[in-house]
């Protein structure tokens, strides 16, 4: 067949090769069953910090499927659901919290989760002093009372269940597998439903189901979950449209609108706990514009809030009222809200000694963030009418925070555009991180007011027993910030995500920003 | 010849030294705080200071540079501030994907570009020539990220012929996983007889490959046309025609061999240039290559990674230049290297 008149028939060879290829392909196809795979495409690197005691960035989306907390917080109902703890109670004075642990929970590394492991995990996180470790600020000591009972002794009454449910730095891991370098090599030692199958340079992380998961695998679940970094928004949209991806986040308003009405795609947009602030440099000397509170107030009145919300955010945001976002306790209508009023801004500039403007302020934002850039552009246009020049500098994040931490406050930026979402669902997270007196971490307004500090810390201690009193104190603290114009609270964002309609079981929980708990999800066409 | 090679190697060392100094200084000048990134978020000032010592950032710049170069030459390219992994290991992870794309794109570009240039030269002034020139100029002039997106819209969204992004279909990773041998998916899947994965990898590389091929295609077509026109006007070609040699033989043996030198030079340099060009293409097609690694390193001022990638690309440029010169001498004995 392959020879014709003693010569090789190339048609025959090619035909046989094609046939063999098809057969081999069929063999390969039938040799492996198709697993149920969920795909999450993310706008940035999917993991930055692999150590569960350091988490503070995008890895929240991966880590919450690898590791578990004692309880989980439902920010909509305000209830806590048991995870590694089946129940818990606090003493009457709120200084002792006892968690009863679930029995028979295995770590991915083989050991059993018990009170010693919980104590070790939280102690290690507190001692490391990294990431969101400060959520455990109230904890004085941890006691493993017996194998399945762990007791937290606090130095002041605090809602420890909120800390124990945090998206960061509240994860429990195997003490025998807790070496930092080992984590950074792409390993995990959690108890979650999924464990790491592979990691390609933090840009493509594949998780597989953990067969010994305490929740079991009855019912519909995904066998594997893929987290992929896809920087181009257009590509991410097309992936969701075509069904290559089940879920994506951080879409621009225009991108979200482009997906509206596309068959098989569902837009997910609910109020989130993420907001955008412009932190104003209060530490500059009095002869510098932002060193003058009147100028800072003028800047606050010169921002066209409605144009930003409609023009930049396409309506997927609402103007902030204070620093605490809408929907989170601590938010209140009693907090002062600046409105767009160029006339008031003009009067304030005159009072400050700048009747015709005539000065320049520098604004920094993370290069590549279009929402921030466009917000700054609108602000710039309005300030130009007042004779104020706004220089907009897009910078890499590291460079932005480096400039923000320059030794001389006069060398730092005047305005720092900054997003914040809570480490744990508590107003203290917003007020402390950005405005409490401290070495510069995220306090890029350099605000320092002992009365404010005392007030928010007193509120923190009130929160457990008298939520209303704590709320009133947080309201007062926010009004202090607004009166001093330490920052411009611009907008509270709605989540801007898209998912396949076939992805069922997903619940957008603002307490776990950008997180999909994949174990709860399944696909149904 | 030996003296020439030694002299060129010496010059190459000078170039590499210059690139390393310049890049190192840039990473020092750009405002950044690698120690802060290294220790993680919310680190205390003491922790940052400790990390500075650990990373050697407390030393003067010249000491840091010489320590870096000494380690680099020993094969220790430092540890990435971002991934916490050795830079060499990171590069070994990402490089095969980029090389596979570049080789595929370059082959596509030159295999199409050279015949196009020849046809254009032979039919000088005709519609074939005009069409070829317009096509070539478009290939060189079109921004790659734009071309990539257009190809995605047409061939993925409208026609559904090729996949959108990635190196292989997600499901293929699980149903027909590729055995990692060289990191080149096409090669690895083929030699292991994993034809499902081969088909998937092939279909995934087509669109980014065409995007990458546009520039070398245009360039090689333009170069081939220009050099072929020059050669075809030479006396020896006229003599060959007068002697009755077949046109095909004249073109492919006598003309092309003399005309191809500059095209090879350009081709080699384009190869090194493609290492940089893939930065954007990899971003559009989510191709997990060196470009993605480098762009992330630049954005986070990850200086060991930036140094590693820059020196690798500089080294590639230098070596390819040298190889081009030697190949030219082999192809064209008129070139006197001494």
What does this structure look like?
The complex is a heterodimer of chains A (525) and B (338). By secondary structure, chain A is of the alpha+beta class. Chain A contains 15 helices and 23 strands. Chain A has helices spanning 10-31, 60-66, 115-128, 160-164, 180-184, 233-242, 253-259, 293-301, 305-312, 342-351, 370-385, 397-404, 427-435, 450-462, 467-484, and strands at residues 3-4, 7-8, 37-42, 71-74, 79-82, 85-90, 96-101, 139-146, 149-154, 194-200, 204-209, 224-229, 247-248, 265-268, 271-280, 317-319, 359-366, 388-395, 415-420, 487-494, 497-500, 503-504, 522-523. In chain A, the strands form 6 sheets. Chain A has a 7-stranded mixed beta sheet, with helices on both faces. A 6-stranded mixed beta sheet of chain A has the order 16-20-15-19-17-18, with helices on both faces. In chain A, strands 6-7-9-8 form a 4-stranded antiparallel beta sheet, with helices on one face. In chain A, a hairpin with a 3-residue loop joins strand 10 and strand 11 (204-209). In chain A, helix 13 packs parallel to helix 15 and helix 14 runs antiparallel to helix 15. The longest helix of chain A has 22 residues, at 10-31. Residues 1-10 and 16-31 of chain A have low confidence and may be disordered. Chain B has 338 residues and is mostly helical. Helices cover 77% and strands 0% of the residues of chain B. Chain B has helices spanning 2-29, 34-39, 45-54, 61-73, 87-122, 127-141, 144-158, 170-175, 185-191, 195-232, 235-242, 247-284, 290-299, 303-331. In chain B, helix 5 runs antiparallel to helix 12 and helix 13 crosses helix 14 (303-331). Chain B starts with a helix and ends in a 7-residue tail after the last helix. The model of chain B has no long low-confidence stretch (mean pLDDT 84).
């Amino acid at each position: 067949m392959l020879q014709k008149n003693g010569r090789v028939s190339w048609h025959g060879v090619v035909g046989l090769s094609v046939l063999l290829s098809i057969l081999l392909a069929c063999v390969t196809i039938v040799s492996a069953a198709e697993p149920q795979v969920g795909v999450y495409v993310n706008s940035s690197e999917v993991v930055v910090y692999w150590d569960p005691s350091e988490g503070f960035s995008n890895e929240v989306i991966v880590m919450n499927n690898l590791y578990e907390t004692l309880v989980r917080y439902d920010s909509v109902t305000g209830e806590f659901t048991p995870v590694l703890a089946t129940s818990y109670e606090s003493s009457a004075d709120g200084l002792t919290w006892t968690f009863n642990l679930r029995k028979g929970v295995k770590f991915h590394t083989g050991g059993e989760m018990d009170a010693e492991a919980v104590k070790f995990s939280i102690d290690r996180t507190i001692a490391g002093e990294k990431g969101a470790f400060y959520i455990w600020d109230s904890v004085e000591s941890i006691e493993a009372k017996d194998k399945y009972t762990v007791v937290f002794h606090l130095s002041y009454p605090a809602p420890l269940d909120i800390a124990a449910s945090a998206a960061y730095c509240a994860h429990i891991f195997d003490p025998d597998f807790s070496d930092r370098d080992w984590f950074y090599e792409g390993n995990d030692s959690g108890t979650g439903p999924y464990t790491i199958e592979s990691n390609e340079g933090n840009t493509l992380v594949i998780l597989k189901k953990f067969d010994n998961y305490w929740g079991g695998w009855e019912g519909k679940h995904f066998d594997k979950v893929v987290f992929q970094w896809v920087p181009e928004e257009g590509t991410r949209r097309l992936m969701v449209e075509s069904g290559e991806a089940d879920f994506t986040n951080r879409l621009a308003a225009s991108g979200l609108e482009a997906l509206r009405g596309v068959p098989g795609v569902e837009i997910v947009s609910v109020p989130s706990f993420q907001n955008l602030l412009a932190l104003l440099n209060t530490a500059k000397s009095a002869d510098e514009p932002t060193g003058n509170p009147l100028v800072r107030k003028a800047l606050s009145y010169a921002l066209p809030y409605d144009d930003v919300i409609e023009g930049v955010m396409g309506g997927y945001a609402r103007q902030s009222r204070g620093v605490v976002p809408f929907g989170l306790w601590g938010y209140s209508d009693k907090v002062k809200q600046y409105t767009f009023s160029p006339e008031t801004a003009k009067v304030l500039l005159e009072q400050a000694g700048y009747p015709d403007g005539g000065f320049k302020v520098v604004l920094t934002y993370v290069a590549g963030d279009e929402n921030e850039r466009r917000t700054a552009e609108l602000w710039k246009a309005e300030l130009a009418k007042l004779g104020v020049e706004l220089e907009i500098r897009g910078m890499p994040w590291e460079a932005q925070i480096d400039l923000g931490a320059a030794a001389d406050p006069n060398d730092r930026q005047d305005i720092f555009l900054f997003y914040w979402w809570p480490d744990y669902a508590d107003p203290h997270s917003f007020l402390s991180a950005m405005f409490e007196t401290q070495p510069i971490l995220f306090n890029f307004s350099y605000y320092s007011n002992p009365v404010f500090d005392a007030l928010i810390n007193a509120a923190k201690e009130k929160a457990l027993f008298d939520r209303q009193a704590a709320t009133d104190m947080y309201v007062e603290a926010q009004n202090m910030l607004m009166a001093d114009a330490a920052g411009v609270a611009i907008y509270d964002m709605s989540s801007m995500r898209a998912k396949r309609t076939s992805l069922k079981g997903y619940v957008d929980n603002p307490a776990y920003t950008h997180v999909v708990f994949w174990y709860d999800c399944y696909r149904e066409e | 010849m030996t003296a020439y090679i030694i002299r060129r190697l010496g010059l190459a060392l000078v170039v590499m030294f210059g690139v390393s100094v310049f890049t190192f200084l840039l990473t020092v000048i750009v405002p950044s705080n690698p120690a802060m990134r290294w220790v993680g978020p919310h680190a205390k000032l003491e922790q940052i200071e400790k990390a500075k010592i650990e990373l050697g950032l407390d030393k003067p710049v010249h000491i840091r540079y010489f320590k870096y170069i000494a380690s680099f030459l020993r094969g220790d390219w430092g540890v990435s501030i971002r991934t916490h992994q050795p830079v060499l290991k990171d590069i070994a992870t990402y490089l095969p994907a980029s090389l596979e794309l570049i080789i595929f794109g370059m082959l596509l570009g030159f295999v199409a570009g050279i015949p196009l240039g020849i046809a254009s030269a032979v039919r000088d002034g005709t519609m074939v020539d005009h069409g070829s020139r317009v096509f070539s100029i478009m290939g060189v002039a079109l921004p790659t990220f734009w071309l990539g997106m257009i190809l995605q819209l047409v061939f993925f969204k409208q026609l559904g012929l090729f996949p959108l992004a990635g190196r292989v279909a997600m499901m293929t990773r699980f149903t027909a996983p590729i055995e990692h041998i060289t990191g080149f998916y096409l090669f690895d899947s083929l030699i292991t007889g994993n034809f499902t994965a081969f088909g998937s990898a092939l279909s995934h590389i087509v669109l980014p490959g065409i995007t990458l091929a546009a520039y070398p295609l245009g360039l090689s077509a333009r170069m081939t046309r220009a050099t072929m026109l020059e050669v075809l006007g030479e006396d020896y070609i006229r003599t060959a025609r007068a002697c009755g040699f077949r046109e095909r033989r004249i073109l492919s043996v006598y003309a092309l061999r003399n005309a191809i030198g500059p095209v090879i030079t350009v081709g080699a340099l384009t190869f090194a240039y493609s290492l940089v060009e893939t930065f954007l293409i990899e971003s559009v097609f989510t191709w997990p290559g060196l470009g993605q690694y480098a762009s992330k390193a630049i954005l986070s001022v990850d200086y060991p990674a930036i140094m590693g990638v820059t020196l690798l690309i500089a080294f590639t440029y230098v070596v390819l230049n040298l190889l081009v010169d030697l190949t030219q001498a082999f192809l064209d004995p008129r070139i006197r290297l001494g």
